[in-house]
Amino acid sequence: MIGFIYRLAKWSAILGGITLCALTLMIVVSVSGRALIDVGLGPVPGDFELVEVGTAIAVFFFLPWCYLRGGHATVDLLYMHLPKWAQKTVELVSDLLMLAVWLVLTWKLWEGMLEKRQYLETTFILQMPIWWAYALCMVGAVIGCLSYIARTATQLGLAREPAGWTVESTGGH
């Protein structure tokens, strides 16, 4: 199960990357269209709405992979001078706190999605239902929760990381 969660986080990050590439191309087309407005072209309608939605989705899809790879920023000033048992304790406590933050974030995202759907809120230009963006972000948020649970379980010795898995950088070790 842990291996599945790690692969899921990896694929979600790839989808986040594809989303950002698509946004970049759309921005280039939109800016080019603005520059060529005299010849009958124009910007992509709702370009800023698409950037807002796409960026939110990409961030939620990137963060689980970033966490599992040890990519979050750490402050090593004190941490690197602690004994190994204290470093492990700091990691475990920070992971548990971040898991709590992700669970609350996911819960509030769920509530926001239901509210946006109930009131039929849409974007201004494209009239795209806002709850669609919330739903896609929910996918990344759930993967994030699973990632924090999986990693915390491995730190507690309740599970093992997938074979061949290495964390690139975690807290200075």
What is the compact description of this entry?
This protein is mostly helical. The protein has 5 helices and no strands. It has one domain (2-72, 79-155).
What descriptive keywords fit this protein?
173 residues, 70% helix, mainly alpha
Using the alpha-carbon principal axes, give the shape: elongated
How many domains is the backbone divided into?
A: 1
Which segments are poorly predicted (pLDDT under 50) over 5 or more consecutive residues? 169-173
**Average pLDDT value?**
90
Secondary structure topology:
Layout: H1 2-35, H2 47-68, H3 76-79, H4 84-118, H5 130-155
Helix pairs in contact: 1-2, 1-5, 2-5, 4-5
Would you kindly provide a written description of the structure presented here, covering whatever features stand out?
- The protein has helices spanning 2-35, 47-68, 76-79, 84-118, 130-155.
- With 173 residues, it is mainly alpha-helical.
- It starts with a helix and ends in an 18-residue tail after the last helix.
